[in-house]
Design brief:
Layout lengths: L1 E4 L2 H9 L4 E9 L9 H5 L6 E8 L6 H10 L8 E2 L2 E2 L5 E5 L2 H14 L10 E4 L3 E3 L7 H4 L4 H18 L8
Parallel strand pairs: 6-7
Antiparallel strand pairs: 1-3, 1-6, 2-3, 2-8, 4-5
Length: 174
Amino acid sequence: MTVGGGCFWCTEAVFQAVKGVEKVVSGYSGGNAPGKPTYREICSGLTGHAEVVQVTFDANVMSYKDLLTIFMTTHDPTTLNRQGADVGTQYRSVIYYHNDHQKEIAQQVIGNLSKYFDKPIVTEISPLNIFYEAEEYHQDYYANNQSQGYCSFVITPKLAKLRRMHADKLKDNS
């Protein structure tokens, strides 16, 4: 599963807390610049890439549909090219599907959730082309930097929302 919901640090921290999730890798996808992009290039907004996470999960423990529901309810899928103070196409809400079945489920989840939002959902649904792993210092960012300001003010409240909305889907230590 590959999704982007703004800053990948937030999305990574959310999925690392979910039952059945085995691995979360921060990275980039959806761009058109040649070669492997760097974080600096992504931040320029000129490459077309989005900050995303690639999630490896056990479908016997947590379904793709449930993971997408968690994703859609832990970021704002109604804001185009932004999440909070993070603005630019690199922060767009996006679901990159790996096959037609994932595409169908993504469309269903968005259709089912749209009635719960005051504004239209603008989450992009596109085929996954290439996923580029982000630099090492972006991996496990929240776990390694919880006292950093961005983590305290942006990610910690997002994790509190996750616990309120999806407590039954979290790992025991979350």
